[in-house]
Amino acid sequence: MAATGTPAPDVRAGRWGFAVRPLRVARRTFPSPATLACWVLAFTAVVALLYNLAMRLTTDAGVSAIESDVATPVLQAQSIVQGHLLLGGWRLLYDSYWTVEVPFYTLGVLVAGVSPVLLYLVPAVLATLLLLTAGLMAKQGLRGGTAAAAVGTLIALIGLPSNVWATVFLHGAWHVGTMLWCLLAFAGLRSGRWRAGWWVAVVLLTAGLLGDLQTAVYGLGPVVGAGVLASIRTRRWLAGAPAVSAAAVSVLAAYLIRTAVAALGGYSIGTINASATPDQRPLNLGNIPGWLLQVFGAGTGQWGNTGVPAAGPPRAERT
Asked: What is the pLDDT, as a whole number, of residue 43?
């Protein structure tokens, strides 16, 4: 014991008589096999439940999650499996999902072939991964009842979908994979430093931009906003530099890769989706309150029927 009554520091004499502190290496703990088995079983159970819900929705003509757009990524995956990695000859939109959801469909085609099962299974897997990622992020830094309340609220809002919300949540090629990439990018940038997570975020944001331009709204906007707010809060511009630079690098990388894909004979970008006309927009906005109620299981009326004529022909650009 030292003279002050506190324990003496753990100091040992080195080979040449110098004081040396022993190196303490942090020990990483890994989940036990039983814990891993529980996670796998829970993941499989959630996928099975969402898969069953997606199949049940096909019997309801008003909220069916299956239509032509859902078959497109399956056909893209088939082309990739046949060796057309860049989808040469395809004419797609800015939400091609080439680097977002199509890889999951490609894995499905490799395992099960081109099957209608993929129309339900892949969206269920993506939705489960999104729930898992969002749940882990919601409980970050929380314990006990607070963590349970955070995860429980998340599950109640999006994990137990009404028929209307399930139409969006379990609809393949409808931005769920994009949201998953963006959440994982947010997790990679949480340290606020240029570490491995920064590179992960850049890769995910780049993939998101290549496969779905809505990544600019779901991912780049929040990332840049968080970086700017971090700089303002700390009064140090370097505090937000990792986030802002990740967004900038991902935009540049996506542009360069897209240019290279076009030069190598990859898929082309067709006509963008038609937009609502000025006289249609007020009517569309007026339907938002009623639709939101139906998303959370309340409200009445037919989902998606605004009474407004279509702004243009259906999406037939993909060949």
From this structure: 82
Q: Name the 3-class secondary structure at 192.
A: coil
Q: 12 pLDDT exceeds 60?
A: no
Residue 242 has pLDDT above 80, yes or no: yes
Question: Which single residue is written with the structure tokens 């590179």?
Answer: 199
pLDDT for residue 7: 52
Q: Taking the CB of residue 101, how many other CB atoms lie within 10 A of it?
A: 28
Phi, psi of 298 (to 5 degrees): -115, 175
Residues 197-217: tens digit of each pLDDT: 999 999 999 999 999 999 999
The pLDDT of residue 103 is: 95
Taking CA atoms, 27 is separated from 12, 24, 30, in Å, by 22, 9, 10
Half-sphere exposure of 260 (CA within 13 A, CB side): 7
Cβ–Cβ < 8 Å for 93, 312: no
Measured CA angle at 165 (ends 159, 69), to 5 deg: 115
Tokens representing 207 are: 């993939």
In the block, residue with structure tokens 């085609």: 109
Q: Model-level pTM? A: 0.79
**pLDDT value, residue 215:** 96
Q: How far apart are CA 36 and CA 152, in angstroms?
A: 22
Measured CA distances, 102 to 163, 175, 185, 289, 317 (Å): 25, 12, 19, 33, 17
Beta strands (DSSP E) in the chain are 12-13, 19-20, 91-92, 268-269
Taking the C-alpha atoms of residue 106 and residue 81, their distance in angstroms, rounded to an integer, is 7
